[in-house]
Amino acid sequence: MVRKLAARERVTGRRASPRRGLALAGGGPLGAIYEIGCVLALFDSLEGVDFNTLDAYVGVSSGGFVAAGLANGISPAQMYRLFITDGDRASELAPDIFLQPAFGEFTRRLLSVPGLVSRGALGLIREPLQRGTVARSFALLSRAIPTGIFGQHSVDKFLAALFAGPGRSDDFRRLATKLYIVATDLDTGAPVTFGKRGFDAVPIRKAIQASSALPGLFPPVRIDGRHYVDGVLSKTLHASAALEDGVELLLCINPLIPFDAGGAAPSGSPRSVPGERSIDAGGLPRVLAQTFRAIIHSRMEVGMDKYRREYPRADILVFGPAREDAIMFEANVLSYGQRVELCERAYRTTREHLWTQRSSISAILSRHGIRLRADRLQDATRPLAAALQDVRPLAAARPSIVRAKADLDRTLDQLEQWFADRRRKRAAVRKRACPVDPCSGM
Predict the structure, then answer these.
(1) Cα dihedral 100, 105, 108, 110 in deg (nearest 10)
(2) Does residue 143 sit in helix, strand or coil?
(3) What average pLDDT does range 335-342 have in this prediction?
(4) Who contacts 29 (Cβ-Cβ below 8 Å, separation ≥6)?
(5) Between residues 103 and 48, which one has the greater pLDDT?
(6) Which of 122, 150, 314, 342 has its CA at 20 to 30 Å from residue 157's CA atom?
(7) What are 251's strand-pairing partners?
(8) 288 in helix, strand or coil?
(9) Cβ-contact 82, 66 below 8 angstroms
(10) Helix (H) or strand (E) holding 20
(11) Cα–Cα distance between 191 and 18 in angstroms, integer?
(12) Is 259 helix (H, G, I), strand (E, B) or coil?
C-alpha cells in the first residue's frame, strides 16, 4: 500500500492526502462509553479531520461498536445520543439488551446431560476398578456447563436495525472506508481480522458480536463453522490492521490502564475508603481489576514499540484515562449506571491531555493537515454539550453520499467534455464543407 501511494505521487506530481485512522480497544460497556466521550473531545478540538471519513477504523471488543458506527457515518454526536442518552430520554441502546439470558446455550447444554451421564456410567461399568475412572466420568459432566450467561440475540437485532438505516451497511465491502473488527479464534487462539480479504463477507454485526464475546459472560460466536471470542484475548488494539493499509496518522484510544493508587486523590465514591492507598485493601475485585488492566496496558505498550519500529513513517497518538483517576478505576466495566458521568469525564480528560501536551501534539497533527482549536481547549469550562452541536452538512456525515456525489461530479465532467468534443468536430466539418463564411456575402 505504501508503495502504491508513492507511485501515485510520482504520476500526479503531488503528494496524496494524508491517510488517517482510528483504533479502539475494548473494555466492556465502560470502554465504549469512554471512547465516545474521547472521540467527542477530539471531534470538538481538532480542525481538519472528519471522524466519519477516516481511511481506516479498527475496533476490538466493545470498541467494535464505536468503530462500526463511525465507519457507517454515524457522527460522534449521534453516537452519544444513541449509546449514552438523548436529553431526558433513555438512550436507544437499552442496557438490558446485553443482559438477556443465553437460553439457546442453556438448552443446548441441558440436552447434552443425558448423553454425558450415559457415557460416564458406561465408563464406570467397563472399567470399575481402574484408577481415575470415577474422576473422568464426573469430569464429563463439566461439558454441560454453559459457556456464557448472556445471549446476543437482542444485540444482533439492534445492530441489524442500526445498520439498515439510510446510508449505512452491514457489509464490510459496501462501506466507503475500511473497517476492521478483530476477534480471537477459540480453537487456535489466533486473532482474526474481519473486514480483511477472505473475512469481509461476514456481516459486520456478527463480527462485532464475536469480537465482544468475553468468555464466561457470552458464549463463543459461531461463524462459518468456527468459534470466536473476545478479540482482546490476543491483542489490545490490533493497530497494525490500519498501519498495513498505509495509515500515516493513527489515533488510538485505550480505556483501561493500570491505576496509580498512591497518586490518586480521594474519589468520593461510596466504595472507596478515606485515606486508602492500597489496592489490596479493596479485596479481590480491585486486585483482579488492576491485574487485568496491567496486562492489557503492558501488551499495548509492547505493541506500540513494535509498530514504531515497523512503521517509522507513521505517527501514533494514544489517548486514555489518567493513571490517578480513581472514579474510572472503581467504575464497573459492565455497568451503564454512570454512563453520562463517565462519558463527560472522558471528554474532560481528553481535552486536558490535548491542552497540556499541545506543543508536541500540534507538531504531530500539523504534519497531517490538522490543527488544534486552542480557543476551545483553553476554555476549561467548555461543556460536552458544545460538542453535541453537530452542524456538519449531511454529505460530510455520510461517506456513501460523499462517494455518490464524487461519482456524479466525475460523470458530469466526462459528459461535458464529450459534448465539447462533439461541438469542435462539427465545427471542423462545417468549415471544410463551406470554407467561405456565408454570412459575409462572398
Answers:
(1) -80
(2) helix
(3) 80
(4) 62, 95, 98, 333, 334, 335, 336, 339
(5) 48
(6) 342
(7) 22, 317
(8) helix
(9) no
(10) strand 20-24
(11) 28
(12) coil
